[in-house]
Amino acid sequence: MRIISGYHKGRTIRAPKNLPVRPTTDMAKEGLFNILNNWVDFDELDVLDLFCGTGNISFEFVSRGAESVTCVDASAKCAAFVKSTFDELKFESGTIIKADALRFVESSKRKWNLIFADPPYSYDQYPNLVDTILENGLLAEDGILIIEHPEEVDFTSVKQHTQTRNYGRVHFSFFELEA
């Protein structure tokens, strides 16, 4: 995987082959960050990356100057890899939490400007995850929630859903809380 833009633009990060992940494609990641370039000021973002896996999305936020990035993943191997890469990037505002993402959002009291979640495509708790994040007030005022999901998952009935963008087999649904 490579970092597309920012301080670490062009840097290639090689994840161990034994991680239980499906990283977001470069095409989809580039599309996502092209959208975000028009919506957010990266250096003011506190980001929560749920199901962070290889940290692919987190590292892009780091490179673009995010104030802080909190990564949550149930895999000890993924958490260790993300931690070591944060150290390599000399990013001191990164927090790695080894935990089940749904349990984490059920118990968290913190707010983030942007929450990104990329569960396994076989995940059967998509609606519960979105509802829990929105109902527990984890988004800061004017915060954005982005869920990566397969085509079969439909969020159009969720009140805070604003749009879905697709990049091949990758779909991003966006949710916003009004100020």
Structure description:
This protein is an alpha/beta fold. The protein has helices at residues 26-37, 56-63, 76-88, 101-107, 126-135; strands at 46-50, 68-73, 94-98, 112-117, 139-149, 161-167, 170-176. A 7-stranded mixed beta sheet has the order 3-2-1-4-5-7-6, sandwiched between helices. A hairpin with a 2-residue loop joins strand 6 and strand 7. Helix 4 (101-107) packs parallel to helix 5.
Topology, element by element:
Blueprint: H1 26-37, E1 46-50, H2 56-63, E2 68-73, H3 76-88, E3 94-98, H4 101-107, E4 112-117, H5 126-135, E5 139-149, E6 161-167, E7 170-176
Parallel strand pairs: 1-2, 1-4, 2-3, 4-5
Antiparallel strand pairs: 5-7, 6-7
Helix pairs in contact: 4-5
Number of strands: 7
Structural class: alpha/beta
Q: What is the distance, rounded to the nearest whole angstrom, between the alpha carbons of the first and last residues?
A: 36 Å
Q: Cα-atom Rg, whole angstroms?
A: 15 Å
Oligomer: single chain
Strand order across the biggest sheet? 3-2-1-4-5-7-6
